[in-house]
Design brief:
homodimer, about 375 residues, 2 domains, 7-stranded mixed sheet, globular
Chain lengths: ~375, ~375
């Protein structure tokens, strides 16, 4: 048993320019501290309805089933796979970074068979390889890919990949954790079937929630499953009784009230700014960052046409100790940038320009801090 | 796409005396709004270590593996079952309310076989029935029961049930969502093997996190599984790389930073008060509430010896329209009390006295409001 007195934790004011969480807008932090009300309170339910409308706007969809899962993006991913994959299902999984690999893990744990299409880390998914895999596996029922690979900073062509999936009679599951609100994402126009995202990237909300959206094609598959969804917590059929129930909501689990206030606020901020303006802002700040980095002789690792503006993977210059450099940035500048993940650990830095963090002040601060430390 | 301007959601100040969420201590609401830092930030990791020590205190355990799952209590439940139950495992499940039923659902979805021991709603689990089931099923490997049934207000004898489980060579999984910090709960002394709880009950934190603790016996079972844990998100083996990794934390998922500030604060408050004092306070406020209700002629439905102080199930007097009455309480008094769940819908009210809500001001306010409406 712990002895002595424990005191409140007072975090420092960091500048968050890693792969997420991004800097949280103070409006959102304030929203989190508003009085907790009940999860079945009519006023809370009204807020939820508004939140769902705002999520539809962010996803550019009219999908009825658009809601935040009460857990982080990894649970949103699992929600899509657990509901759509049945034992024996063949799923084509595109792997061009860490999160494609996690998709494969999910397929296997659902009893599915994963057919892997591999692309180099730091590159987009190659549609021609995907088409070959679809052709070679006519019994595949799902294509899964990551729109914006957080581990490498590469953007894939979700519209083209979704069209291929449908041409070969597959559904698609799309990871938009890092793309939502940062680059164009048009769920309805591109006909993305099951989509999950996160809150701590370009929405600049706190981590812990995972917005998802399912179209009718995806729902039809969920509703005609032969087997029970293996997760009770993530079973869409049960969840809908709470989120979609007209008039009377069936109790499923207790929603995380205050984080949902935060997400509502984040989506109001996005709606006020306008989605296109948000995309444009991410692009503009990326250009400023890129120019500054190149002036210092630093190189981005992803080819220009496949680059995410909101996640910039930079080749660590020779002779620099990765961990020591990032520690120093944190210590001297309260500035967090990201390490490389998996195969790129020690080789790449990842500088996030996500949501509220994508502003000129942050970009110039980050450039100055890196320059100062490199020249130390 | 939503037209017009969306505005911030400003919830009213309710008094929460339902089955949870309970009133959140203002210290915790303030903690939620502190600056977000990275989930791999050394200062965050230090906070997490302290949080785990404080959770051990709350659970009265020295279990190394004691941590908050990044999702609500339902996910904590699923974490225990998904890690401990393998396909074909026989699990004895005690059902004396809604949450025992949910345990059964979990067993089935994990491919296990559920042997049900039923007791009437509103009564404790009967150890003699449990012993009979253990005797009749020598191949059972787990006994699962709810310590404090939130749906009915009945307290079961966790120590006796755990001893029975061990006598018959079973592990026990125990739901302590509503008991933690509200009534005596001694994980080590009672030898509870796998235990989950929630944050929005007697800890008076916001909903959305689920503290769990596993002893060595439970971990041995997790580590010697023949099959993979079916959930990636809830796989304890993966989670431990993040929560328990010495020096270097393996990235699993992005922890919900700010809600964890809130839980840390809630546990500091509990530690300051002292666990025994918290139990005593719940008992004292219950006695005041009970006296007041009985004076009005209202009856508690659970026999005195099996009653939870923190959740009071009251028989709705004849001639009272349940839904209309509770709506009026909310409208006229900003006071939330709980409805009956499942079989007791329309028959019972559930008045919570949990955590910060268990204070004399709330009790007297609640009694006055109910009396005024009953006499209207």
């Amino acid at each position: 048993m712990p002895a002595g007195h424990f005191t409140s934790f007072h975090p420092p004011q960091r500048t968050l320019m890693g792969p997420g969480p991004s800097d949280v807008n103070p409006r959102i932090l304030e929203a989190l501290s508003r009085p907790t009300i009940g999860h079945l309170d009519p006023l809370f339910i009204g807020m939820m309805d508004e939140l769902k409308s705002l999520l539809r706007y962010a996803f550019q969809t009219e999908n009825e089933v658009t809601l935040p899962i009460s857990a982080p993006g990894s649970a949103g991913m699992e929600c899509c796979f657990a509901n759509l994959v049945e034992p024996g299902d063949k799923v084509i999984v595109c792997i061009n970074g860490v999160f494609g690999g996690r998709m494969k893990e999910n397929v296997i744990r659902c009893g599915g068979q994963a057919i892997i299409v591999e692309d180099p880390w730091g590159r987009a998914v190659d549609p021609s390889k995907v088409e070959a895999a679809l052709k070679a596996n006519p019994d595949a029922s799902i294509l899964a890919f990551v729109h914006a690979e957080t581990s490498t900073g590469a953007l894939s062509d979700a519209q083209t990949l979704a069209k291929l999936a449908h041409d070969y009679d597959c559904l698609c599951i799309v990871d938009t954790v890092t793309s939502l609100a940062g680059v164009p994402l048009k769920v309805d126009e591109w006909q993305l079937d099951a989509v999950y995202s996160g809150t701590q990237k370009c929405l600049s909300c706190i981590p812990g929630l995972s917005p998802v959206t399912f179209n009718d094609r995806a729902l039809a598959k969920v509703k005609t499953r032969k087997t029970m969804v293996q997760s009770w917590f993530l079973d869409l059929n049960l969840m809908l009784g709470y989120w979609e129930g007209e008039g009377k909501r069936a109790y499923h689990h207790t929603a995380p009230i205050n984080p949902l206030y935060g997400l509502h606020e984040a989506l109001c901020i996005l709606h006020d700014e306008g989605l296109e303006n948000s995309w444009e802002r991410h692009r503009t700040q990326h250009n400023i960052l890129k120019a500054g980095l190149e002036k210092m002789g630093l190189e981005l690792s992803v080819p220009e046409a496949e680059r995410l503006p909101q996640l910039n993977a930079i080749i660590i210059p020779e002779g620099i100790n990765d961990a020591a450099f990032r520690s120093q940035l944190l210590k001297d500048y309260n500035l967090e940038i990201g390490a490389g993940l998996g195969a790129s650990a020690g080789k790449l830095w990842r500088i996030g320009l996500m949501g509220y963090s994508a502003n000129k002040g942050n970009v110039l601060y980050c450039l100055s801090a890196i320059e100062a430390l490199l020249n130390k």
